Structure formats: C-alpha cells, structure tokens
Amino acid sequence: MLSVREESSTARVIPPAQPRKLAKVPFVELADGRLQGVVSSGSDIERVYVSSIAAGDYAFACSTNNNRPCGGARGSFCKHLVALAGEAVLQYGAERVARYLRVESADGVATTQGIVSAMTANRPAKADATAAAPVFSRFLRHLAYLELAPTTAPLPELHWFPTTRAVV
Amino acid sequence: MRTDLLTEPVDGLAEALAAVDAFDRALAGGLLRPAPAQAAGLDGLAEAVAGSPLAARVAEAAGQAAAGTAGEDHLVALAAARTALLGSVHDALAARLDEAIGRPRGEAPAPAPAPGEPQAANLLAAARSWLTDLARTGWQGIDHELVSGAAPVVSALLADPALRRLATLLDGFAAELAACCPGAALERIPLRRWADLWSRALLLTVPGAADAPATGTLTGRLLPLGVDLHEHATAAQAQVHAVFEPAEGGAPRLVRAGVAVPKPDTVVGAGVWQLLRPHLSLLAAAGEGLTMELTGMPVTAEGDLLWHDEHARPGAPADAFATARVALAGATTPSTAPLDRHPARIATPVFLEGYTAHQEDDALAFELAGHRLAVDTDRVPAASPLTPGAVAASTACLGLLRWDDGEFRLQPLAVEATVKRKTVALHAGAWAGGTGDKDGAKAEKAATEAVAMLRERAGRLLRK
C-alpha cells in the first residue's frame, strides 16, 4: 500500500501495475488468498497452464486449461510456478508479493529467487486442483475487459482515481 | 489570481468536515453492533443536516443504525446526508475559488428531469446489497470472501454501458479493498476516501441518479487547454478541458470532453493512451495544438460534451498558452450537477505565471504573491514529456486547481520553460494522440505488443 492519509479523498491506495512483457505469463494476480495466474505453454500455442500458490502455507497447483496436471509440479514448484512468481514481482514489486504470500526469510525477499527459496524451504504441499477453474474464469474475465465498449459520457467517479507516478 | 484567498480559512468548513469524519469513523467499525462512539458519529451526521429537507429521514436512519438495525433505505439516507454535507463544503470552496480567480460562474441548471425508465433494477439492487454488507461489516472487518462478492455484480454492470458509472466505481473500489484484506491487519485506513466511494456508489444504485442527459448542442470553436487523466487498475478516462467560443458570438465558456474505457490491469502508461485515442479525435487535436470546429455537439448542463466525432472537425492551430492568456479569464465556469458537488470533483482550469518554485522534501510548491500553493506533480501521467523536474523549472503553468486533504493544490496540465534561451511548452497530454518522441515511441511499441498478446490469447481462449 502507498501512504494512507485518513482525510484525503483521492490518495492512491494501491500503486499501479508496472509494465511487463505478457508473452510467457499473460495473467497474474494476487487474489482469493493466492498468487495465481496463467502461464503460456512453451511448446503448444493452444495450451496454457493455470497455476497458483496459496498465501501462508504455499500449497501449490498447476494444471492445463484442459485440466491435465502439470508433469513438473509433483514434489515441488514447476517452472510455470517460478515464472508466475517472477512476473508477479515485476508487476507488483517483491515487497507486495512477499507480504501477500506471507513470506519472510532471513536471506531477504527482495527478489523472486529469495521469495521462491523461502517458500520451497518450507516444503509446501501440493494443493488439489479446485482452484484451477475459478482462476481460469478470472483470466477470461480479465481478457473480456478488452472487448468492453468505451464511452464518451463523463464518468465523474474517476476523479477519485487520479493517475499517479508512484511506483512499487 | 488572489492566492491569499486560497490559504485563508473557509467559514464552517472545519465543522462540516468534523461531522463527516465522525461518520466515517463509525463506518470503519461496521454498523452491525455499533459502539457508543459510533452512535455519536451517526447522531452528529443527522444533527449536521437537521436544518435541511433531509432532516427527518436522516434522523430516523441514524437512530436505526445506532441500534444496529439499519436497513438498505436507512443506509441510502445516511449516504445522502454525508453527500449533502460535502456538497456544502464543495459550494463554499467553489465560491472561494471564483473569488480568487475572478471568473464568472454559469447559472445552476434547472432541476434534473424525473428519472426515466428504471433500468436494470435487479442489478442495482445487487450492488446495493453488497454495499450494505460492506457497511455492516466495516473496513476493519473486510475479508476476501466479502470483497469478492462484488465481482459478479461488477461483471454484469460492465456489460451495460448505461450503468458504466456505477460499474467503474465499484470495480475500482473492490480492487482496492481486495488489496487491503484482511481489514483487521490494516494499520491505517483511508477513512474519507472509502466512505466517499461507498456513499457515492450507494447513491448511484438509486435509479436515475447517474443520468446526465444532453440539455443542448454547441456550434462554434473549441480551444483545448489540456488533458486530465484518471485511471484505476481496470479503467481509464481522459478529460480534455477547453474553452468554447460560440459561433453566434457571446461569452466563451469552459467545457470538458472525455472518453473512458475499461482496461485489463496490465495495460498501463502509453497503452492507456492507445486504448482511449481511437474514440476521441479531440485527443489528437489537443496533442497537435489544433482547435476543433463543433457543429451541433450535444452538451450536458454541467458543460460536458457528449462527444461524437461526426460533430467535430479539426480547425486552425491554437497554442494552449495563448488560449489561456487571452480567453481563459473571460470564460464562464459551468455549474456543478447536484450529486457531483464534492470537493474531490473540483478541477478548475487556471493559468499562472510570475511564481517561484520551491522544492520541499519531495513535494513542490509555487510561491505566488507571497502565498504558497502546493503543486501535485504526482498527477502528471507517466507516459508524458512533462516531468516533475520540468514543472519545478517552469516559468508559466496551465493547470487545474483542486482541493484535497485540507488544501488547494495545483495539478499541472502544461508548463512553459526556457530551454537554451527559447520558450518551450510541455503538455501532460502531449502523447495522448501519439508521439514521435524517442522515449514515447518505445513505450508505444511495448504497449502495442502487450495488447496484441492479450488479444491473441483472448482470441484463442475466450470463444471456446
């Protein structure tokens, strides 16, 4: 969170997402108590992996959009989960990702490497695949924002959301 | 401009805001089982509007809320009282601004027409029900389950362009709350802000409240002053402030024209301009320093043009600073719609020169005629040639006067600075219509690739 001023109407509470390349990980978010998102398959353009890591216990899941389990995510994080964490750090900053996942480490969590090692050192368990469907539908909802019509009627409410130069 | 008036206290302001703050604290704890301090806050709000037509309904609502038995209609009454109180704060600040700037203000519009067909009553009811849960829980009690309840409501609202105001507000508000969960762990809460967003959203669930119909058309010349950009994670709006000169003669007036679009949160910076650009030819004209000739452009009572490209064509070149020096002082400020009377909505174009810039820690201020005016450089878009450094080194500034957190501030829209003994102008919205600038072009390319990637993914995955 950015600085909170109790008597300000227009203070930006969350910093804007930072630009990143979307080819490998088109979607990442901190939501529903998880770091979750969608990772493009390296080999098949029609396939994506739906990946998530739970805050607190780091229980992880990774499967394709057709609900097949990812071969790499058996004992520990697969490459998709590591890529997901890396892009989350780019988009939100390491501090916000670590805070959301409740990762603390003496070695520091200022980098993706630090955050991932701190989580794997905890020997996280594999989660069941129930998160995949809601994550994928959130991704589709996210993509649908590109299809929504613009409007030239004024939206006075957006005066409460000024643009900001603040970075994470 | 009389900057002394901007720093002098406004009568009654502190008392009105104290009542608002006490109510906002009551809301933070939730209205399920209000403590005595919360009841006092509710009572204070009712007392503050005791001399208004709202008095009886708000007194009843405050009583019910203090007993933990407030229904949806009671909460709407409380939101209306808070909005009315901030409306009076807006009016006092706007009157002060008019006095300081010495510019005429347009007459208040006739009362809004009766609401038309009640649209999407069930969607509005769903939004209201979520907002009610939120008020009962309070900011300190929010969790992921409660906040994610907004998602289906927002998705359904977004699909109907007529409901875009409520949809965009709830979307940004819910995302902010989600990022702040669990509420119990929050060290500080943006009390005024969240109570603003909550009460505004609640009033927008009243059918007809969001209507801002055209009340006439404009034919004449439009001289752009600058571009004001708003954005949250999943929406953006560019508003162009301009001076309009009627073709039939008569006093010039200040108007706005804008475009807003929902966006994925990964579209940022130059990507935002790219999404907005195709839907408002005025953005390109403003970027290139051109006037536009309007023919029969619909306009609301508040001076918002309901832009259609077919009613506008590019005209002769016009420098925004020349417009500001020549036409701004005599232009009429439009009055504000009743529901929009809120200090955060104040955005009055002004032109300043003859100031000295002072850097105070990481904040900038202009000293003008012996008085200090805070400069909000954070509101300059990231995808822009205008930078805080350029503002600090400027000799003239076109901006919007705003009010927040107890003081007037200047939001720079454009500055003039001396570079190699030549005067150059830098505009916050210079890249709105596109750019040949090297850094700008690089940002444009990256943004184009990001959107192309998302569209490719959407094309493959959405229609399965």
Supply the key terms.
heterodimer; A: 168 residues; alpha+beta; 4-stranded antiparallel β-sheet; 4 strands; 26% helix; 14% strand; globular; B: 464 residues; 7-stranded mixed β-sheet; 6-stranded mixed β-sheet; 15 helices; 13 strands
Q: Would you write up a description of this structure?
A:
The complex is a heterodimer of chains A (168) and B (464). Chain A contains 4 helices and 4 strands. Chain A has 168 residues and is of the alpha+beta class. Chain A has a 4-stranded antiparallel beta sheet with strand order 1-2-3-4, sandwiched between helices. The mean pLDDT of chain A is 89. Chain B contains 15 helices and 13 strands. In chain B, helix 2 (13-29) runs antiparallel to helix 5 and helix 5 crosses helix 10 (191-204). In chain B, the strands form 2 sheets. In chain B, strands 7, 8, 9, 10, 11, 12 and 13 form a 7-stranded mixed beta sheet that branches. A 6-stranded mixed beta sheet of chain B has the order 5-3-2-1-4-6, sandwiched between helices. The mean pLDDT of chain B is 93. Helices cover 41% and strands 24% of the residues of chain B. In chain B, strand 12 (407-419) and strand 13 form a beta hairpin. Chains A and B meet through strand 1 and helix 4 of A and helix 8, helix 9, helix 10, strand 1 and strand 2 of B.
